[in-house]
Each structure stands twice: as C-alpha cells, then as structure tokens.
Design a protein that fits this description.
Helix 4 links the parallel strand 3 and strand 4. This protein is an alpha/beta fold and about 325 residues long. Strands 1-2-4-3-5-6-7-8 form an eight-stranded mixed beta sheet, with helices on both faces. The chain has a single domain, classed as 3-Layer(aba) Sandwich (Rossmann fold). Helix 5 crosses helix 6. The chain has ten helices and eight strands.
Length: about 325
C-alpha cells in the first residue's frame, strides 16, 4: 500500500481503518470460497446487529421459479405499508465479487430505497460462482426481473422498472441493462451502479508498478473474475454480458447513475464506462467521492460524513427517478 494512497484517505475513514485493520488492507480471499463466505456471513450478521429500525416498510421472502431445470430462487420483496396505485419497481442485486453475499448484505439499503422511492424493491439471491459461473448469476437476475414485472399483485408501473446493485451487483445490473435492451422484453427506466465491478481486464496482480487498494484488492478482483468467468480473466473471448465494460454498443441502454470513491479499484473502469455511456447518448450521472476505497459506506465507515453524503446522493437520485 503506497504512502500516497494512505495520505489521501478521508480522515474519518482513515481513523476507522487504523482501528479495525492493518494498512495493507485485508482483501477477501476469494480463492477459498467457503472461507470467504464465512467471513461474508459475519459481515452480514454485523450489519443486521447495527441496523436501525426502518418504519413503514414491510418485507416478505418468497420462492420464485428459477431457470428451466434449476432450483427455485429466493427473493425478498420490500413494500411501503401505505400503498396507493401503481408504483415503480426496482430490482436490487447484492455484491460480493460474484462469489459471496446474500439478501442480508444490503437489507438496510433496500429498506431505505423502498421509502425514498415509495416503490417496490425486489432483492434477488442469485446463485454464486465458482459453483455457478457466468451466465448463471446473470440469468438468475433476469428471471427475477421478469418475475417482478409480471406480478400484478405488486402493482408495479411497468414504465418505471429499474435495476441496481453495488460492486458485483453493479456489474450484474449493467449487464442486465444490456441484456434487457437486446432481448426487448422489458424496457428499463434506469440503472443504479454503485462502485460497479464491470471490467475483467482490471485484474493485473500487484507489483511495484501496479498499486493495490484497500478492502477490495487486485488479488480479490482476480479471483472473483476467475470464479465468475470459469477461466482466466482478460482473454479475448469474454462477452460484454459478462464484462459490460467490453460492450461496443451502449446505445439505447437505460439511463445510469454511477457512484464510486476515487480510491476504489473500480474508479477508473467506472469513469471509462460512464464516458462510453455519454458518447452513446445515454443520460448518465456520475458521482466521485474523494478519499474513500471500495465499500466505504457499508460496514467499513457507515457513520462517516462522506458515507452519509454518498447515501443521501444515491437516495435523492433514486427518489427523483421514481417520482418521474
């Protein structure tokens, strides 16, 4: 970890890091998925224990049909208690490097989004790599998207269906926006990409010339992509549905909101993707937060002022989109 990198950290985030981890970071070891999932479960449990009560939101875990011949999927449906007419529908996709994560990981955020947008949020528990590599996780998400759009009981306005996610969930959301455009079954109104994992070519392992980053390291990124693709990342034959940054044609995809920290490993790929969206004529909003690494707003430093700003910016944009 370079001295310059450490010096650039937001002071509140730096203080948390000094107390909770050494300065090299600990990246999650995705080369050992079972151990990584144990750590992820502990993180989810910590988030649950810290969760403040969000009034006015009701939730229900439901089983829905999966892909033909595949097991059912679990989704968590979030709704506001006071329902009145058609509401926007939002599919949330959790992060975890395509290898870890579950419905609990982003539960607090899903509750906040439900209230902010006065909408229906559906969070999908897609199958994970390496046991279920690409395209299985993406197709699971597409199944959940179609299910959500078809449920008359949820009273979803089909002209205001959105997708979003963080990290690997942001990558799947970007891929889902491409897939929805090309299949033409569901027209998306918006995509919310929070520090998205969208480029398998950003996997060169650390060296004297390639710096590492806190929380989500290049080694973590390498193993996450290797698990998801089922082979070495960075090869020529990777599809854009797997690695959206490779897409050559972004015309007609849903308008996008992209948020990332400038010390995130995914910062540059997020900038490049945003530039490609703009060049394709896609309405795009980009927020870059100084001095923060990957996932800074989650379990790392949720009470830091910059984390609050990140959440407020995200919720404000979401509310604006949902209100039309």
């Amino acid at each position: 970890m370079s001295k310059n990198y450490i010096e650039r950290l937001d002071p509140e985030v730096a203080e948390v890091i000094k107390k909770s981890m050494n300065q090299s970071g600990p990246g999650m070891d995705l080369s050992k998925p079972s151990e990584a999932r144990v750590l992820s479960d502990k993180m989810s449990a910590a988030l649950v224990s810290q969760r403040a009560e969000v009034k006015g939101v009701i939730t229900e875990d439901r089983k829905i049909p999966g892909l033909p011949g595949a097991p059912e999927l679990t989704v968590r449906v979030y709704q506001i208690e006071k329902k009145a007419g058609l509401r926007p529908g939002f599919l949330w996709i959790h992060g975890g490097g395509y290898v870890v994560g579950d419905l609990e990981l982003d539960d607090p955020l899903c509750r906040q989004l439900t209230l902010a947008g006065e909408c229906v949020v559906v969070s999908v528990n897609y199958r994970l790599a390496p046991e279920h590599p690409y395209p299985i996780p993406l197709e699971d998400c597409y199944v959940a998207l179609k299910w959500m759009a078809a449920q008359d009981e949820l009273q979803i306005d089909r002209s205001r269906i959105c997708v979003g996610g963080a990290s690997a969930g942001g990558g799947l959301s970007a891929a889902l926006a491409l897939l929805a455009r090309d299949r033409g079954e569901i027209k998306l109104a918006w995509q919310l990409l929070l520090y998205p994992m969208i480029d398998d070519r950003n996997t060169e392992l650390p060296s004297e010339t390639v710096p590492n980053t806190l929380v989500w390291t290049r080694e973590s990124n390498y193993w996450g992509w290797r698990a998801y693709l089922g082979h070495e990342p960075g090869t020529k034959d990777v599809e854009s549905y797997a690695s959206p940054a490779r897409a050559e044609n972004l015309e007609g995809v849903a308008p996008a909101f992209i948020g990332t920290g400038d010390l995130d490993l995914f910062a540059e790929e997020s900038f490049y993707y945003a530039a490609k969206l703009v060049a394709a004529g896609v309405p795009t909003e980009v927020h870059v937060y100084p001095g923060v690494p990957h996932g800074f707003d989650g379990i790392l430093a949720p009470q830091a002022e910059i984390s609050k700003k990140f959440r407020n910016d995200t919720l404000w944009a979401f509310k604006r989109i949902c209100k039309g």
